[in-house]
Amino acid sequence: MNEPGLSDLEKIALPTGAPLGGIYFHDQGRMHRRVTAAPEETGLYHVMSRTAAGQKVFGEADKEAFRVLMWRMAKFSGVEVLTYCVMDNHFHLLLRIPQREKFVARFDCDEPEGAGEERLLEHLRLLYSKAYLDMLRREILELREQGKEREVQSLLGRYKRRFCDLSLFVKELKERFSRWFNKKYSRKGTLWMARFKSVMVENGGCLQTMAAYIDLNPVRAGLVKKPEDYRWCGYSEALGGSKRMRRGLCRVTGWPIDSWEITGKRVGKRQQTGAEAYREMLFEKGLEREGDTSPEKRRKRHGLKVEAVRNVIESGGQLAEAELVMHRVRWFSEGVALGSEGFLRRTLGSSFDAQAFKSMPVSTSGSSSAWYSLSRLRGAGIG
Q1: pTM attached to this predicted model
Q2: What is the pLDDT of residues 330-347, one digit of tens each?
Q3: Which residues pair with 43 in a beta bridge?
Q4: Angle at CA 286, nearest 5°, toward 282 and 288?
């Protein structure tokens, strides 16, 4: 569907519209068996997928579009993103798949048209348009008028089966992004190289190593000197103020979920915050080291400089307040405006869009004021 006046980046956030005819589902097709946790257990996974032929085709706006879609799909699917990284020709996701029965229980109902069913239909608004949901409600009503309650439950069950499912989440994420990408660049054909790869990860040290590997990807590739300098990775987003990303990284380190900025555990003679614990771990694992290459081609693999790592470890992972504010300003100043909410309203005037406005505080301790940004990259229309 063409939406005049919308940028390419805004189009990726559009909900799925109503199909012609009635509600239907595509056949998911056959899927190769993967090693996954039992439905009643919580699973942790590292997921990676590369573009066809490994071509570097993703620009800044494309990476941002993938990030926007990833969070939208994760919220719909009940999947928790612990960290991620979007590179020029591939992406990494570290995912936590909750217990499916527990997630789906909120939508259970003892009687037709009950509270659980209504919660499910409200939840579908995360991904589907009002026109689509109106059509779905009409179809449910028609089936019930014909006494076909079993068909109604089968129809609703198809949505529920998409929750807390690793394969379906990644498959749909890749498919939706492919459609957006192909339409934007007027291209045809497959975007991705085969199916995605996934590895089940044990909680604890293995999970921490995998998270560090993902957030250090841009450093290892020589794109940036420090992981926080690469916008499209989980650590950088957490420093930028994302609560959902901070919770994910706290879970990685074993810190209390909401202790990113408050002390959560005692380490030696002092208490660390979740942010300090993750930064210390990240820099320790990111130390520049010799690569395992032939003697003729021995070289240093890109990594964090010894001095930088030493400084982080000696400080217990502390990030100077000036550095933190600088990072947040850099994150937000890629938008069209930066300042207080009142300033943005006055500056944008009649063009101020309350729905597009994102409140993202950049404040220093001891200061009650906060800075905000209209979260859009210049010229890219990111909302």
Answers
A1: 0.76
A2: 555 444 444 556 665 665
A3: 97
A4: 160
Write down the residue that tokens 């982080």 correspond to.
Answer: 312
Q: Yes or no: say if 93 and 47 are a contact pair by the CB < 8 Å rule.
A: yes
What's the CA gap between 102 and 41, in Å, rounded? Answer: 10
Place of tokens 């220093």: 364
Single-letter amino acid, residue 95: L
Domains of the chain, by residue range, sit at 8-15+37-99+164-319, 102-160, 323-373
Cα(134)–Cα(121) distance, integer angstroms: 10
Q: How many Å apart are CA 370 and CA 347, to the nearest integer?
A: 17
Sequence-ordered strand ranges (E) for the chain: 43-50, 80-86, 90-97, 197-200, 263-267, 270-273, 289-290, 300-301, 338-339, 372-373
CATH of 8-15+37-99+164-319, one of 2.30.30.140, 1.10.10.10, 3.30.70.1290, 3.30.420.140: 3.30.70.1290
> What is the DSSP secondary-structure string of 202-262?
-TTHHHHHHHHHHHTHHHHTTS-SSGGG-TTBHHHHHHTT-HHHHHHHHHHHT--TT-SSS
Q: Considering only CA atoms, which of 163, 220, 174 is closest in space to residue 196?
A: 174
By residue count, the chain amounts to 383
Q: Tens digits of per-residue pLDDT, 175-216?
A: 999 999 999 999 988 999 888 888 888 898 889 888 988 998
Residue that is written with structure tokens 């130390």 in the block = 287
